[in-house]
Specification:
Distance between the termini: 31 Å
Strand content: 5-15%
Order of helices and strands: EHEHHHHHHEEHEEEHEHH
Radius of gyration: 18 Å
Number of strands: 8
Largest sheet: 8 strands, mixed
Number of helices: 11
Shape: globular
Helix content: 40-55%
Oligomer: single chain
Length: 308
């Protein structure tokens, strides 16, 4: 495999964040890689950042198939751990839930959302535990990501005090950086990296496009993990808050897309048809059946986009 500096800059990838909805992105990537997609750089936030890291290290290990394998392993581990199911344990005393209660349940997640509005992260999660931490520590291969053969990787998090995006590159990637990029401030404490504190990268960029544009690529492949449009007006506090977040998370990306040079082809793979039909709280549903459904929908969306 050629060293990074000699890779032809043809495709670069931009991966939105969206919690469990990132399984849609997984499906898109799986199909594109299967069909021969090569990429020289990838930018991501939140779940998109985790997939970006897995794709890069997998590519170093075994090219496109290695990237597919690494992505599948990530989502299998998320499903096996029912990763956000652990959130319920700190709230059981409040709602009297059985430990086996599935968090895909609408009433359960409405209760969690209301609890997050009433109590601070320190009260709900006094030890600052993020269930993604051990999983990422087991999967992340920093040595591969820093390999000279690795595609360029950009992971963004939001600097809490400065209110701007901080973009981390290959040599800076760590478990802490990935957790910072996915740090939901209502659930987890801000992540301290080098004395600066960070929240989810979606608040400041979703994802960062500028680092992907030098040197100039031929095509930018943007994979969305959030619907831009939804039918109907939310009427509960939980749904209103979630929809506001969806809208707010689109704004930084729209600003960067407006400045995209015309010479760069944009392949924009949207998620409206798939994710717009699911509840606003479903982004926290890590049940295997739901993730598999989104994965297959992503593969179909990739096929449709490439045939257009």
């Amino acid at each position: 495999m050629a060293v990074r500096s000699s890779i032809r800059v043809t495709n670069v990838l931009a991966l939105q964040g969206g919690g469990a909805h990132g399984a849609f992105t997984w499906g898109v990537l799986d199909r594109l890689l299967q069909d021969g997609l090569e990429f020289s750089a990838v930018s991501g936030v939140s779940s998109g950042a985790m997939m970006a890291a897995m794709a890069v290290q997998g590519f170093v290990h075994n090219g496109r198939q290695g990237a597919r394998d690494a992505l599948r392993k990530l989502w299998q581990r998320v499903a096996d751990a029912h990763i956000f199911g652990n959130v319920s344990t700190s709230l059981d005393w409040m709602w009297g839930w059985d430990k086996g209660m599935a968090l895909g349940n609408e009433m359960a997640w409405a209760g969690i959302t209301n609890a997050l509005r009433m109590f601070s992260p320190g009260q709900l999660n006094p030890f600052g535990q993020n269930p993604l931490g051990p999983l990422l520590a087991d999967l992340l291969d920093v040595e591969a990501i820093c390999d000279a053969r690795a595609p360029r990787l950009f992971v963004a998090a939001t600097d809490v005090e400065a209110g701007v995006a901080r973009v981390f590159e290959n040599h800076e990637i760590s478990v802490e950086v990935l957790l910072a990029s996915a740090c939901i401030p209502m659930m987890f404490p801000a992540v301290n990296i080098g004395g600066r504190f960070y929240w989810d990268g979606g608040y400041s960029c979703n994802p960062a496009l500028k680092p992907l544009l030098s040197p100039r690529p031929e095509r930018l492949v943007l994979i969305r993990a959030q619907p831009r449009r939804r039918q109907g007006v939310p009427d509960t506090t939980a749904d209103i808050v979630h929809r506001l977040h969806e809208i707010a998370f689109q704004a930084p990306l729209d600003a960067e897309l407006a400045a995209l040079p015309r010479q760069i082809e944009l392949l924009d793979i949207g998620a409206d048809a798939t994710l717009g039909q699911h509840s606003l709280t479903s982004k926290m549903n890590t049940e295997k059946a739901f993730l598999d459904e989104l994965f297959m929908a992503g593969r179909d969306a990739a096929l449709t986009a490439m045939a257009a």
